[in-house]
Specification:
The protein is built from 14 helices and eight strands. With 290 residues, it is α/β, with parallel strands linked by helices. The protein has two domains: 3-235, Phosphoenolpyruvate-binding domains (TIM Barrel), CATH 3.20.20.60; 240-286, no CATH class. Helix 2 (25-33) crosses helix 4 (61-72) and helix 10 (189-198) packs across helix 11. It is globular, with a radius of gyration of 20 Å. It catalyses: (2S,3R)-3-hydroxybutane-1,2,3-tricarboxylate = pyruvate + succinate.
Amino acid sequence: MSAGKRFCEAVRRERPLQVVGVIHAFAAKLAESAGFRAVYVSGAGVANAAFGKPDLGLTTLDQVAEEVRRISSVTRLPVLVDIDTGWGRDLFSGRTMKLMHRAGAAAVQLEDQVDMKRCGHRPGKHLVPVADMVKRIRAAVKSRPIRDMGVMARTDAAAVEGLDAAMYRAQQYVQAGADMIFAEALGSLSAYKKFCQAVKVPVLANMTEFGKTPMLSVKEFRSAGVRLVLYPLSAFRAMNSAAQEVYQVIRSQGTQKSLLKKMQTRKELYRLLDYQKAERTMDRRLGSKR
């Protein structure tokens, strides 16, 4: 079964489907071990974690594709990939979709901001006209190497033009061929319910922390008709907080002894990596060469 079909199956089986963000390959293994059915590669996550840059459209197609390749190579979970605005000429030439497919993406998420985009929960966002976003979607749909590769259209219009405008845009994006809609930065559960009633394809809610959307549960999103709930950087934020504490303690105390109970053990790390199996394989290879 293709990655795209596995993603569609996950959306069908789990309502709403919880999609969790992973910032590197090992995080994907952790997500899989926790029982998630799909993972997400965030544009902000790649920019922040891999390059130490803000989420302002500063990473390249090749950089994001390489992160996707690393992640998809270690998990069977389908990967939804944030491709921001598609990288312009690469999107329209077909290179964006081709590289994402080769990297292992099950589906991509394409947004309607201008190329110098901003985080969806920051002020000062600017959108392209509806017609321009329709062209982006049509280019992605037309150039995807296989039909199973999903195209999700994200609209940031709710925070810029209002909810009605966001619903109108979403309807136009569906007509252009979008398989799913990412409704960014809606401010209430009632707004999600209204949005889902107006849009006849699966709708994703971004349950990011410290943003414009209140902290809502899976049960609440289900009641509103939301089909996917995204947690794009939850683990990343927790990892950062933990790492900062570790660095501060080691620096101030001269030892990490007080932190050992908070750490993943070597045994658990090796279990997730299947370390012993890899060692046995290496030993057999070395033995055959002696």
